[in-house]
Every structure is written in structure tokens, then in C-alpha cells.
Amino acid sequence: MKSRFAPDKKLNRRMLVTSFLLGLLYVGFVAALIALTKSAVLAVVIAGGALFVQYFFSDKIALYAMGGRIVTPEEAPQLHGAIDRLCALADMPKPRIAIADVDLPNAFATGRNPKNAVVCVTTGIMRRLDADELEGVLSHELSHVAHRDVAVMTIASFLGVLAGLITRFGLYSGLGGRRDQNTAVIVLTIVAVSAAVYAVSFLLTRALSRYRELAADRAGAILTGRPSALASALTKISGDIAQIPSRDLRQAEAFNAFFFAPAISGKGVSLSSLFSTHPPLETRLDKLGALSRELGEQV
């Protein structure tokens, strides 16, 4: 089901290319495991189970880890009202709404598709943003749901599982039964291959994560027609996050790829930006400023 969120063909192409490259990467990884050890079948079964759990229960896992709880319209009327307006404007199913009692000002969307999506906001972000700013953040998160990039990011690191299963059934050449007397060499080779696979997949998913944030900024701002409100929210949140103790930020760092703004991030464009889940704040603000001028927004 299509929504009125501005389609992003570049995002779709990037998600497709990233998925394809990760699939190829894991085909080679599983093939190497099969060639080097008899434990490949067990590894595939474990990875397949992890994929199943991650895909079908990602919303519950994320909410549990963040301490979020689903709230009713009676419990959070303003939040539900904002989501209702945006979903009507975007012509999309309304996701479940959750609140996490955390001072860290942030929000995230999770779920395998629009019908099973959850948008969660923290009490910290609700306390700090005005109505227009919060609506900008919510529109950003809803665009993730509409573009289905939440599901792509959720399963990106597991795409090779299916390819690995196909590879396993197709490779009966006897490589898995070959015995190598030098066990240490085999172990070191497996470790090296695993490290290389992790490094490449890490960079691919981080690059996709950065672009999807820019795409969500643009689509969300176009839907509301107020890029300046989203820019204001970004500026306010980033400034407040900088005042939060590093210990508290590190506890939430695992959610960076799904957060509206990263709990811990570098400043400016540098080598470290290659490892970041989000584009630099300056880049996001510049693009929102350009979009504001393009739309002729009255600030």
C-alpha cells in the first residue's frame, strides 16, 4: 500500500544494491565456512533462527530494550492526535504508539511493515519540543515506516542467511568433509574471513543508514511543509544530547541506527563519518534549509 510520502527512488536503489551486495557477501562467507568446517550447517541454523526472531519480533525487542510501552489515545491524546493527522495526510495505516520513560530526547520507528509498525518517543523529547517540532520528528519516523527502510535495516545483516541455505544445498562437492590437519590454520582463516565479512557489511549498512536519514528528513519535511520545524528539532535535540552524561548515552548507543538523532556522534565530515549511522548535523541542516527555500517556506 502506497502512501503520500514523497517517493525516493534513490533510497530504493540503495536499499536494493546494499541488499544484493550483502547477499553476495554472505554467499561467499557461508561457502568459505562449508569449505573449512563441518559446523557451517549449525551456523546457518542459528543465523536463520536469529533472522526469524529479529524480523518478526523486532518491535517487541526494541520496545523492551528501551523500556517503551504502548499508550492509548486516553493516555497520550496529543501524541495520538499528531500521529492521526500525519497518517491521514500521508494516507497510511496508523502505527502503534509507544512512550519510553527516558530523558534522552529521541524517537524511533520499528516493525517489519506498516501494519506492524511502532513509533516510540521518549519523555525527554516530548518535554523539550514544541508541537510543530515534535510533528516534524514524527513525520520523519513515519516516512521510515512508509518507505519500509526499517525492515530493510532490520534484516540487512541477516540477508546472507537465505543465500547461505541455498548455497548449502547446492554444495555437495565434498568440501565440507575434507579434513585439514592444521586446525590452527583453519581457525585463523575462519576468523579472518569473518572479520572481513563483518567489516564490509558494517560499512554497507552504515552507508545505507546515513542516506535513509536524509531521505526521511526530506520526505517528512515535504509532508508537513515545514522543513524549518524539523531543522529546529534537530538543532535542539543535538544540543541537549551533548549535555547528557556519556555513560547514559553509551547505554543507548546500540539504537543509533534507528534513532532520530544519534546518541553519540562525531562532528563534521571526517573519516569517522564512514562509521556513523547518521549524516553530520550540518549536512542535515543544510539540506533542510535548501528544501525550505525550494518550498518557499515562510520562516
UniProtKB/TrEMBL annotation:
Membrane topology of this protein: Multi-pass membrane protein
PANTHER family assigned: PROTEASE HTPX, PROTEASE HTPX HOMOLOG
GO molecular function: metalloendopeptidase activity; zinc ion binding
Domain of life: Bacteria
Residue runs in coiled coils: none
Upper taxonomic lineage: Bacteria, Bacillati, Actinomycetota, Actinomycetes, Propionibacteriales
Entry protein name: Protease HtpX homolog
Keyword Hydrolase: yes
Entry binding sites for Zn(2+): H140, H144, E213
Entry EC no(s): 3.4.24.-
Assigned GO CC terms: plasma membrane
Primary location class: membrane
Cofactor note as given: Binds 1 zinc ion per subunit.
Compartment(s) where it occurs, according to its Swiss-Prot or TrEMBL record: Cell membrane
Bilayer-crossing regions: 15-34, 40-57, 150-171, 183-204
Enzyme class: hydrolase
Active-site feature positions: E141
Domain Peptidase M48: residue ranges: 74-289
Family: Belongs to the peptidase M48B family.
Pfam families, per the entry: Peptidase_M48
Cofactor: Zn(2+)
Single GO BP term: proteolysis
UniProt keyword terms in alphabetical order: Cell membrane, Hydrolase, Membrane, Metal-binding, Metalloprotease, Protease, Transmembrane, Transmembrane helix, Zinc
